[in-house]
Amino acid sequence: MTSLAERWGIHPDQFWLYGRPIEEPVRFDEEMDAWHVHGHAEVLEALANPAAFSSETIKLVPMGAGESYTEGDLLQTDPPDHGALRRLAARAFTPKVVADLEPRIDALARELLDTVADEDGFDLMSALAYPLPVTVVTELLGIPAADRHLFERWMTGMVEEMGDLSLADSAEDQEATFGAAMDHMRLMLDYLREHTAECRRAPRDDLLGGLIGAELNGRRLTDNHIVNFAKMLLIAGYLSTTMLIGNTVLCLDHFPDQMARVRADRSLVPGLVEESLRYLSPVAATYRATAAETELGGRRLGPGKMVLVWFGAANRDARVFPDPMAFDPARSPNPQLGFGRGVHFCLGAALARMEGRIALNRLFDRFPVLRTDPDKPPAFMLAPDTTGVTSLPVRTSG
Fold first, then answer.
1. pLDDT tens digits for 368-388?
2. pLDDT class for 74, splitting at 50, 70, 90?
3. How far apart are CA 89 and CA 83, in angstroms?
4. CA separation, residue 203 to residues 114, 123, 207, 269 (Å)
5. Comparing 41-45, 60-64, 98-102, 301-305, which segment has the lowest mean pLDDT?
6. CA quadruple 94, 99, 102, 103: dihedral positive or negative?
7. 78 closest CA partner among 348, 385, 342
8. Which pairing describes strands 34-37 and 306-310: parallel, antiparallel, or unpaired?
9. Cα–Cα distance measured from residue 294 to residue 300, given in angstroms and rounded to the nearest whole number
10. In sequence order, which residues have a C-beta less than 8 Å from that of residue 76 and are 6 or more positions away?
11. What is the pLDDT of residue 232?
């Protein structure tokens, strides 16, 4: 059977999607001057050792991204500061908060699908997969509904520009690519900064209001802290839930027997979400910087090197996942790493899982037929460290 990656021409650097085995769990890339970590056990080991594998990677590729871009960004923070920030941020994702959001998420999914219910086909990403999570996050942040389309433009622009970034490029080319992506980022941060200022002038009892009133090590959070936290929520929602919904439909389209199986037994939907995260991991890789000389997978890694930690490859490691090319919603155990692991495990994982589960169930309820459009292929994200589509035309009739 032709693999899903071969069918759609997914980025060839993601060799694991083509069924090629992991030959070196840890490998040095001379051209990029960086390390790749592909093995499941090795990925777990790296993520469990922030002292050796720092999240503050911006120091290796700064390109003008200063404190205004990184202060308060959990993804660029190491312990002990990371722990204090994470405890503050976790208030937005307690089990009660997430559970209380379920009726709103379900109603929103229904409303979004109402707009395409009578269509023979539509773009799944623009109709459901993008607006669902972004609306949830922007509502949490108190952003007006009329402004939500701006975030789609900015985040899509950032992702498209970063798709051209390669560590193998010259410093000048890297800086040009990064700068183009930062143009979109800057517009989003400027908006969030003004929104934060407005919330300071008129305090509210919501997530942003809570952050404005919170303290970190005895001091109130700066605007940078609050703005970069909001930025992280928006980007994480886009890269996790949006891509998760699109990727799951792609997988079910490629494996129609599993589509029929899940439609017949909805109790498989939570497992379907987990298997989708394993099979097509939206965040295919994260980045670390070696803070000191260390050993991983029998290799010696010197200090000051970029490390690409490949969740996507680890999720196809045959040492952990029997028959890794098979797509099985009932796979158990399924220790997939789609949301990361360790101190940086995705804060919004429970919310993303709920959004994915609700979106898929509502799609199954509404459309007895749901398949990719043979005349309009999906458009995949260009960056090799992500796996997902920006456009996914689907048909809802024979």
1. 999 999 999 999 988 889 999
2. confident
3. 10
4. 35, 38, 11, 40
5. 60-64
6. negative
7. 342
8. parallel
9. 6
10. 55, 56, 57, 58, 70
11. 84
- Residues 6 or more apart in contact with residue 28 via CB below 8 angstroms: 34, 35, 36, 299
Give pTM, 2 decimals.
Answer: 0.92
Residue 46 has pLDDT above 60, yes or no: yes
Taking only the tens place, the pLDDT of each residue in 143-178 is 998 998 898 888 877 777 665 555 555 556 666 666
Report, in angstroms and rounded to the nearest whole number, the Rg of the chain calculated over CA atoms: 21
- Is 393:116 a contact under the CB 8 Å cutoff? no
- Cis check for the bond before 80: say yes or no (omega within 30 of 0): yes
Q: Which two tokens stand for residue 302?
A: 């010197």
Looking at domain 24-395, what is its CATH homologous superfamily?
Cytochrome P450 (1.10.630.10)
Main-chain phi, psi angles of 22, to 5 degrees? -80, 110
Residue written as token pair 């700064």: 62
* pLDDT (0 to 100) of residue 389: 94
Using DSSP, state whether 23 is helix, strand or coil.
Answer: coil
Is the Cβ–Cβ distance between 26 and 313 less than 8 Å? no
Over residues 339-351, the mean pLDDT reads 93
Residue 53 in this model has a pLDDT that exceeds 60? yes
In one-letter notation, the amino acid at residue 7 is R
Q: Within 10 A of 84 (CB to CB), how many other CB atoms are there?
A: 14
Contact yes or no for 12/309 (Cβ under 8 A): no
Answer yes or no: are the C-beta atoms of 288 and 309 closer than 8 Å: yes
Count the Cβ atoms, other than its own, within 10 Å of residue 207: 23
Contact 372, 357 (CB under 8 A): no
Per the structure block, which two tokens stand in for 224?
A: 């940078």
CA–CA gap between residue 382 and residue 14 (Å, rounded): 12
CA dihedral sign of residues 348, 349, 350, 354: positive
Strand partners, 394: 122, 372
- Supply the pLDDT for residue 155: 81
